[in-house]
Design brief:
Strand content of chain A: 25-35%
Oligomer: heterodimer
Radius of gyration of chain B: 22 Å
Helix content of chain B: 25-40%
Helix content of chain A: 25-40%
Structural class of chain A: alpha/beta
Structural class of chain B: alpha/beta
Shape of chain A: globular
Number of strands of chain A: 25
Strand content of chain B: 25-35%
Distance between the termini of chain B: 22 Å
Number of helices of chain B: 7
Strand order of the largest sheet of chain A: 8-15-9-10-11
Largest interface: A-B, 60 and 56 residues
Largest sheet of chain A: 5 strands, parallel
Chain lengths: 481, 338
């Protein structure tokens, strides 16, 4: 067992080392692994795989001098985003990052431009506005061109106001064109003055966009960390906020779409320390837990379970190893196993099936299968919202909508005596297993289609995507009951 | 007789208070969660999930429902609703608090106090030009939530007609002479609620009167051009909302250099986040300080902490982030005192 204070900080020189130092100050035992996607640094490593799970990670690395292996209880990613200038370079153009550390001696005119249709982050605006306020604006004429000025940050509206009072002109064009004519020319229509404006800035500061470069993407893929559409190592899921990834025990401080400055990173480090502590308690109490029952005789060694596990909780060596600490007991591996080699100990298929049969014996003709996250919500709503004249459904809690596969749903639907099966999962994008709700929906659709194709009469089968505050959706559910 | 002291007393059971109480409880601390209202959840619990076509839009509303259920099953957290704090003294490192509940006064002792007393929505009736309160078809977004919750769609409140044209007026009570701050969440909130309404009532024409649209999601830059095709965006804040005899609302706006009168069946005011109405009493009771914008200073010292919208405007997920990161200070404080 590795010390629960051991943390791998996987990052670049700029962010990673600082995070390592602060973790030491908070009493942890971090190791800094420098990753340089451009492979320029001599001390950098390339991760080959991140095996194991929460409490027992095993990071395989290759460096200039050979292969290495690092073990730790937790992993933290802190890689700086790369700022990309979408316009190309022009004479007099500089990125805002350079602008922040620049001394405008002898300059008469500066133009600040957000070329990205209002995408620049409030944190970028904050640092640029601070810089502008530190410049003697009586000597330099400053124009700002941005379709949206971001003031959703503390004190930003005040700074925006001060800049306007000091003579900075803010243009907010909906569209603009620019061309390179020995320096940049920007043209747009100003809707307040109702006229076409042409600017030929001496110095053009562009509010560049943070991006996740391709080598990072490859790195996250190697480590089996799910990404969002912009390759941020945190899939677009409200439950992952602020620093969780799909792999329990792997955290991301940067790159995150919302963050930029070092302050926010050090804030997140505080949160992480607390999270490590909380998870350490969980690890200690779950050490001997077994979550999945494995039947070697039925296993086809097809690696499906390894591939589908959203939490990276399965390690496939000569056989699948189920890592109890990383396992969220969602049962997605069970649902996808083609050989029926797996059983979720918390709720076995046969147990669920016999519970359904029992409920039919007890006179229920409608049942509801609800994912763990919605179970209490739908139970409460049915209790209070369904009028007494209607027949109540028997509600079953399942770990995740993705736990129910076609086979199970077919077995339930063909038990006999059921009029209606209502299946409830989460909204797409706040399911705790990521894609579980979509898998459940698919299973429901397939089974429905199968009955339709075969022309067999079946119970009415409906899939609902609900959430605890979805008053409209819950009302709809009650109406359909 | 002295009762056993709580590790922490959390004031306010909105999303920040719930999150703080839950996390502390999970870490083994005993928490008393004091809420003024009869139910848990605060304003955040009134928000409808804004998912469209079953796709989450990260409004965070469900996190509030989840947090309420978690608190109710957390054995270390004792919620106390309908209660108010009358008095607070710090004596020998322990806070002695006088609580009033259903007319009865009781005493509680706590090692730390966490202020999560939230916000008050800006009251639009203080701005005469908005005619709020004079016409039934000028609503705040919270009132729209209620209509949606009760009817499943947007209707005009008195006549129960389906509106054909509606508009959102942004920055009500934010970014003005009095409140020199952006409330941060209203842009995203208004657009999410517009998307939800539009998905239920696709024929509805929706206009936004705005200053600057603030980023509200990861895909803002990709989504915003699409939104501009779906809705009308007018970069002006109406000077006055005029109530017509037929119940419709007129707004004058300068479009392409010409002043035009625009009619709307319903006007929705995106009211900003103001410091809580009773913040003065909290400031006095706990001897904490306000910042320039009138909210609490984020990290008061000596065992008193403040999180969430009490320290400045922020959305549900940002509140959660602030609590998760800031609680480290609380835990360190409590452990140092052991």
């Amino acid at each position: 067992m590795i010390s629960l204070n051991r943390v791998i900080v996987l990052g670049d020189e700029k962010l990673g080392r600082g995070v390592k130092e602060s973790l030491i100050n908070y009493g942890f035992d971090p190791i800094f692994v420098e990753v340089d996607p451009n492979e320029k640094s001599n001390n950098s490593f390339r991760p080959l795989a991140l095996r194991g799970g929460l409490g027992d990670f095993n990071l395989l690395l290759v460096g200039k001098t050979g292969y290495y292996e690092e073990k730790a209880a937790f992993v933290v990613i802190c890689l700086s985003p790369v700022y990309k200038n979408e316009m190309g370079s022009f004479k007099g153009q500089m990125s805002f990052e350079n602008f922040l550390g620049w001394d405008p001696i002898g300059v008469k005119e500066i133009t600040i431009l957000d070329p990205s249709n209002g995408r620049a982050l409030p944190s970028v605006w904050s640092s640029v506005m601070n810089k502008l306020l530190s410049i003697d604006l009586t000597k330099i004429k400053v124009s700002v061109v941005a379709s949206q000025i971001k003031v959703a940050g503390e004190g930003l509206e005040r700074k925006y106001r001060m800049l306007r009072e000091q003579g900075v002109i803010f243009y907010k064009p909906d569209e603009l064109t620019y061309l390179n004519d020995n320096g940049i020319i920007i043209r747009f229509r100003d809707h307040i003055m109702e006229k076409e404006i042409e600017l030929r800035p001496e110095i053009l500061v562009t509010l560049d966009q943070p991006t996740v470069p391709y080598p990072y993407k490859a790195l996250f893929e190697t480590m089996r960390i799910e990404m969002d559409q912009y390759n941020y190592p945190q899939d677009d899921n409200v439950l992952r906020f602020p620093y969780y990834t799909n792999r329990k025990g792997v955290f991301v401080l940067s790159p995150l779409p919302e963050f930029l400055n070092e302050d926010s990173v050090s804030q997140l480090v505080l949160g992480l320390c607390l999270e490590f502590k909380r998870l350490s308690n969980e690890i200690k109490s779950n050490l001997n837990r077994v979550t999945i029952e494995y039947n070697r005789g039925q296993c086809a060694y097809c690696l499906t379970c390894f591939r589908v596990c959203p939490h990276g909780a399965i390690l496939f060596e000569s056989k699948p190893n189920f890592l109890p600490l990383a396992c969220e007991e969602c049962g997605i591996c069970v649902a996808n196993c083609p050989g029926e080699a797996l059983k979720l100990i918390k709720l076995k298929y046969e147990e669920l099936l016999s519970n359904v049969k029992e409920s039919i014996k007890n006179g229920f003709s409608t049942i509801m299968l609800s994912c763990q996250r919605n179970y209490n919500v739908v139970s409460e709503v049915i209790e209070s919202g369904l009028d007494l004249s209607k027949e109540r459904p028997c509600v079953f809690e399942i770990p995740c909508a993705g736990y129910v596969n076609e086979n199970l749903l077919l077995s339930i639907a063909t038990v006999g005596g059921l009029k209606k099966i209502t299946f409830v999962g989460c909204k797409e994008g706040n399911c705790r297993t990521g894609k579980g709700t979509l898998r459940g929906e698919m299973a429901c659709k397939s089974v429905k289609n199968l009955f339709k194709l075969l022309g067999i009469e079946s119970p009415i089968l409906n899939f609902y995507k609900l959430s605890s505050q979805d008053f409209i959706g819950l009302k709809e559910l009650i109406r359909e009951m | 007789m002295e009762a056993k002291p709580w590790d922490a007393l959390v004031l306010g059971a909105g999303i920040s208070g719930l999150e703080a109480a839950n996390l502390l409880g999970e870490m083994g601390f005993e928490v008393l969660l004091v809420e003024r209202k009869p139910q848990l959840g605060g304003y955040a619990a009134l928000y409808q999930c804004k998912a469209v076509d079953g796709k989450c839009v990260e409004c965070g509303a469900c996190l509030v429902g989840d947090a309420v259920r978690k608190v109710l099953s957390n054995k270390k957290v004792v919620p106390m609703t309908g209660a108010k704090i009358l008095n607070c003294h710090k004596d020998n490192g322990l806070f002695k608090l006088e609580l009033m509940r259903e007319g009865e006064v009781s005493l509680a002792f706590a090692k730390a106090v966490i202020l999560c007393n939230g916000f008050s929505p800006f009251d639009p009736s203080t701005q005469k030009n908005l005619s709020y309160g004079k016409a039934s078809n000028i609503l705040t977004a919270l009132e729209v939530e209620e209509i949606l919750r009760n009817n499943g769609k947007l209707l005009r409140p008195e006549t129960l007609e389906v509106p054909k044209t509606i508009c959102f007026v942004q920055c009500v009570g934010s970014r003005n002479e009095k409140n020199i701050y952006c409330s941060k969440v209203c842009c995203g909130y208004a657009i999410r609620i517009a998307n939800l309404i539009k998905s239920i009532q696709p024929d509805l024409n929706i206009t936004f009167f705005y200053m600057d649209i603030q980023t509200f999601s990861r895909s803002f830059a990709d989504d915003f051009p699409k939104l501009k095709q779906k809705y009308t965006f007018i970069r002006q804040i109406p000077g006055e909302l005029i109530v017509n005899n037929d119940g419709s609302i007129s707004v004058y706006a300068k479009l392409d250099g010409v002043i035009k009168e625009l009619y709307y069946d319903l006007v929705i005011l995106s009211c900003g986040i103001s410091p809580p109405e009773d913040l003065d009493s909290v400031v006095e009771l706990f001897k904490v300080k306000r910042n320039n914008d009138g909210f609490l200073r984020p990290s008061p010292e000596g065992g008193i902490f403040a999180f969430g919208t009490a320290t400045g405007p922020k959305g549900i997920t940002d509140c959660i982030r602030e609590v998760r990161c800031g609680l480290k200070g609380v835990v360190d404080y409590l452990e140092a005192g052991k």
